[in-house]
């Protein structure tokens, strides 16, 4: 019976879907927070410090392929099958990483996790656009950020304790039971969503374009780590492959941030690149420059996640605020956090500024990321939501992988003695801050008309609990 009450995330119509989506986000958050903390110890034990960025980049590059596969699978078989596939592949990657005895195997395992994670990421956005009306979406994305709070509080600490007192391998293997729990909760939620009817067969060429883009990113990173004459040729080939691979996968005009949907997609890449580039470097900088334990080095990541969740909740409670203005403010706050983090590389200062500066950076992400998600769904029609969501996620991982790759080049140069590690950290801060400033300048272009053919969310009765 219709009570006339306004829709809410946990009303009868939405509670199963909301609970399932939040569980998946929590599961992914545990992986992200824990793995980043354990990575310095893992690569050191596997004698792979010069290749420090590769486990991060392998995950992100493979995610591009996973996102295309996930979009195609979801269009043909529905979200339930896509999520099952994504979680299964992700679990296989965790298992392989936990038992790996060589850096190459470890990197390959992270790539397998990336494929599974890419499938999951696209499915989340498709379900969000399908099952939730526009007025609920700011709250939903705020809830997504809140789902990071528990992993942010306990993930780095647990990972640090396991790494310090037992083994870093448990950080990967210990997540396997959480996969079963998350999958068990989310499948009933997506089972009631309608399956696609009469969807055209996806173009198989998209998968090859995604693979080409991933190869391009990898080639650029490898060229940067060679630091010799041959590197120039590899870099040119990688850049050409990256551009050729991304063009069919992103909306036309994304490279120049054309107003509307292209600027929204481009903004996602810039925001993710600026933040996650430093997020990958920060634990290494604290352990190598200041002798922090794995546990202590992970605490700034917790502060960043808490800042992210706090700002995201704030924007979710004010759905009438301009998303474009919030996006620009988010880029500005992120820039301030990045610049303040440079203090950890100043002799005699210590690593303590990271505890506050990364919380500030998290506030910027909490304002910017949900705003971009809302803008994406506003500018996507029912017919293009899956494709647009995939492009959105591809821009995210491409931007993050590119910036982490640059950070990896700087770390490799420090490992080779070309420059000191403090100089590498400062150079990374400058470059990533420039990316954030560019995002702030381009943010107003995200404004534009909503999709002309956008339809309403799936009727609430189809999601009701029996």
Describe this structure in words.
The protein is built from 16 helices and no strands. The longest helix has 31 residues. The C terminus is likely disordered. Helix 12 packs across helix 14. By secondary structure, it is mainly α. 74% of the residues lie in helices and 0% in strands.
Concise account of the structure shown:
With 466 residues, the protein is mostly helical. Helices cover 74% and strands 0% of the residues.
Number of helices: 16
Largest sheet: none
State the low-pLDDT regions, or none. 452-466
Strand content: under 5%
| Element string (H = helix, E = strand) | HHHHHHHHHHHHHHHH
What's the helical proportion of residues?
over 70%
Q: What is the β-strand count?
A: 0
- CA-based shape: globular
Structural class: mainly alpha
End-to-end distance: 13 Å
> What Rg is obtained from the alpha carbons, in whole angstroms?
21 Å
Task: Using brief descriptors, characterize the structure shown.
disordered C terminus, 466 residues, single chain, globular, mainly alpha, 0% strand
